[in-house]
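User: I'm writing a tutorial on reading structure tokens. Could you give me a worked example: one chain, its sequence, then its tokens, then a sentence or two explaining what the tokens reveal?
Assistant: Sure. Here is the example chain.
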Amino acid sequence: MPETAPVPSVSIVIPTRNCSHLLKRLLDSIDRQTCRDMEVIVIDNFSSDGTFQLASSRSNVRVFQKGPERHAQRGYGASVAQGRFLMFFDADMELDFNLIENCMHLAAQGADAVIIPERGGGEGFWAACQKLEKECYWEDPWMEAANRFIRKDIYDSVGGYRTDLIAGEDFEIHDRLVHAGARIARATSMITHYEDTRFWYVVKKKFYYGTHMKKVFQEAPLRNTKRFVLFKPAYLRNWKLLLKHPILTGGIITMKTTQFLAGSLGLLTGFFKKKEVSS
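And here are its predicted structure tokens:
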């Protein structure tokens, strides 16, 4: 009889869409992990730039196609995952070499889910501003979420990523885990997140997400106001750090003010469209 493949401990789920220029760096960082007891699942949203072909060329990657949004891709990836633990990453990320080992160690100590801190990546002024911004979020109770490493049975028991949320879904699943009594730890290893920091690209993205934020605020107004308000508690806690970098702090103020206005306009647009449809 043919031997059956061993069941991996960790299933890594990666939603993708037209990101072939980013995906290789993430997959290479996964290949460098000190923990090898894993499978990699890419859920591609019908890319036209060779992303599907790039993922398929890796012998250790299972590739599927699914849309229409990231939450649906993550949900499908979790449904086909074989591991006892789920990890969710985006194509524009790079993992510290021992990240999975660090998370598995915390799981062995009893953690059901793990907060993985992020550092900013990339070059240029706006990327430097974002690096400082992300540093302000480290160990902040409102801005970090246990959404990237979750025990699969716990993930299933809380219902996984919701298919009706396009924005705020990372915080929302964290809140459900907390409400369910999940034991949450925080990793010391990190993700480097190479987000696109082009100014107007980010503004447009914030507007788009804003159009889908109505439900997020209605369901948890206090928590999400602290997360999405312009002057976040995280900035107040880190005022000394921000004062050390006045030029970058000025950039953060410019960047976040413009993004906040774009998101608020998107939110208002979302409310208006809802009323228009129902009238």
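What the tokens reveal: The chain has a mean pLDDT of 91. Strands lie at 10-16, 38-44, 61-65, 85-88, 93-95, 113-115, 118-120, 149-151, 184-186, 191-193.
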